[in-house]
Design a protein that fits this description.
This protein is an alpha+beta fold. The protein has a domain of about 55 residues: YefM-like domain (YefM-like fold, 3-Layer(aba) Sandwich). The protein is about 30% helix and about 20% strand. A 3-stranded mixed β-sheet has the order 1-2-3. The longest helix has 8 residues.
């Protein structure tokens, strides 16, 4: 991963180059020498903000009925309790 730093002025003048650089890592954009913004690829953004879903949320997703899912049956057996 390559980190690129550009001033706001450089970013305005070289936006295409900044977008290409974002494919290789984050691009920090500075205002008066201080980091102010970060440009990254959409894929990196999705990976960074991915939220874990619980099973109820996943089952409520549109189009879920089209997915075949056959979980294996589980046999749960009881055992006598040993109080000794």
């Amino acid at each position: 991963m390559t980190i690129t730093t550009l001033s706001s002025r450089e970013f305005n003048q070289r936006a295409s180059e900044a977008k290409r650089s974002a494919n290789n890592g984050p691009v920090f954009i500075t205002d008066r020498g201080r980091p102010a913004h970060v440009l990254m690829s959409f894929e990196d953004y999705q990976r960074l903000t991915r939220q874990r879903r619980n099973i109820a949320d996943a089952l409520a997703m549109p189009g879920i009925a089209d997915i075949e899912f056959e979980p294996p049956r589980v046999a749960i057996e009881t055992r006598p309790t040993d109080f000794s």
